[in-house]
Write a sequence for this structure.
């Protein structure tokens, strides 16, 4: 009876339900109170999570948006771009004429010009000693006199023979012999004259003369120096004093050049600017540097010194294209690209092709229509699909971000 009363009390008393000790009857019968507590705790956590989700801070999205990287963007539009190619190169004579020894050579006895002097075609530049050649010339002249005397004697003998053959004193065979002697004597006269002319030519070749009108650029001999054809260049002359700039350009820039195109050239160290014209475009490309040479004709001026360095600005027409600052462009192994911000503020990589680089920015040939929001700076720190916080900048300002 007592055990039945205890069970009824436990069932009716909530406090007794939490008791896990022995009953009054002395038997220990555990009650699952811990399981009840664990289940209640899990339910409370679930309810708290649901409440936090449904009652979250309405400013949380804005906070996360503020954590996105801030980037400056602009829609470049379409601009008319005047193509300008900047290049550098060396100054040189347009036609550099080397002058050396063309004869036997010898000792220099006189130098008549200095670098910077203007000379005429055939003007004497230097004289080589000719004492031996003068004696040889005198000997040749004497041989001419001997040959001419022999020719006169032979002619006189022939004239007498012609008178005698008419009277029958000598035969026609004798006349033929006299005629042959006369002809041989005349031939020896011509040989002596040719030898004398050859010696005169050798003597003239001891004079170093200017091959054309021009400006003396360099001199590499002194009085007393022994020279020969193996000495190489003794004078350098710029034909008519014309100069040029040899500008090295990439093969893509060479494709935009045309003969006669105007070029502005500024020598290093000079504040002056000279106007030249393209007169030759290299027909080959250096396979090592992928560059060619554009030769720009320049008028003579004392500030244009061969061997010096100069910069050139070449106008290459105009085109309509989006214009971006150089800071907007990135590059990898596949070529150039920019980051474009989509409507949901995602940074997306866009491949572009560069048309030309100008003072105002980079003209884009393809890849952009001009209405996209292009990241102007910090593109190197972005990743594909990253959420950004764009700040718009007017298109007219974007071209100044060089």
């Amino acid at each position: 009876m007592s055990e039945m009363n205890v069970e009824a009390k436990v069932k009716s008393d909530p406090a007794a339900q939490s008791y896990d000790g022995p009953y009054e009857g002395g038997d220990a019968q555990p009650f699952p109170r811990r399981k009840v507590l664990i289940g209640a705790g899990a339910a409370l956590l679930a309810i708290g999570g649901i409440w936090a989700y449904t009652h979250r801070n309405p400013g949380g999205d804005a906070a996360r948006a503020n954590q996105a990287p801030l980037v400056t963007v602009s829609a470049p539009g379409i601009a008319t771009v005047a193509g300008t190619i900047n290049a550098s190169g060396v100054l040189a004579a347009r036609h550099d004429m080397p002058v050396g020894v063309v004869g036997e050579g010898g000792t220099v006895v006189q130098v008549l010009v200095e670098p910077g002097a203007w000379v005429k075609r055939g003007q004497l530049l230097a004289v080589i000693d000719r004492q031996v050649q003068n004696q040889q010339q005198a000997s040749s002249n004497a041989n001419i006199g001997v040959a001419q005397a022999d020719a006169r004697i032979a002619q006189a003998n022939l004239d007498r023979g012609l008178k005698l053959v008419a009277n029958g004193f000598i035969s026609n065979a004798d006349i033929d012999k006299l005629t042959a002697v006369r002809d041989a004597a005349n031939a020896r006269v011509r040989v002596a004259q040719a030898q004398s002319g050859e010696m005169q030519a050798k003597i003239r070749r001891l004079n170093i003369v200017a091959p054309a009108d021009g400006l003396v650029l360099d001199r590499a001999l002194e009085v007393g120096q022994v020279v020969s054809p193996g000495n190489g260049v003794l004078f350098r002359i710029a034909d008519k004093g014309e100069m040029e700039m040899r500008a090295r350009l990439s093969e893509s820039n060479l494709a935009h050049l045309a003969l006669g195109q105007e070029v502005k050239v500024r020598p290093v160290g000079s504040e002056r600017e000279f106007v030249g014209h393209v007169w030759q475009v290299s027909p080959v490309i250096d396979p090592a540097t992928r560059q060619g040479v554009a030769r720009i004709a320049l008028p003579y001026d004392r500030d244009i010194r061969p061997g010096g360095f100069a910069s050139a600005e070449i106008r290459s027409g105009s085109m309509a294209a989006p214009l971006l600052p150089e800071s907007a462009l990135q590059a990898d192994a596949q070529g150039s690209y920019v980051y474009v911000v989509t409507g949901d503020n995602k940074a997306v990589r866009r491949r572009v092709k560069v048309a030309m680089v100008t003072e105002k920015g980079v003209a884009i040939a393809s890849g952009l229509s001009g209405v996209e929001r292009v990241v102007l700076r910090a593109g190197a720190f972005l990743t594909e699909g990253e959420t950004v916080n764009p700040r718009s900048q007017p298109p007219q300002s974007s071209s100044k971000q060089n």
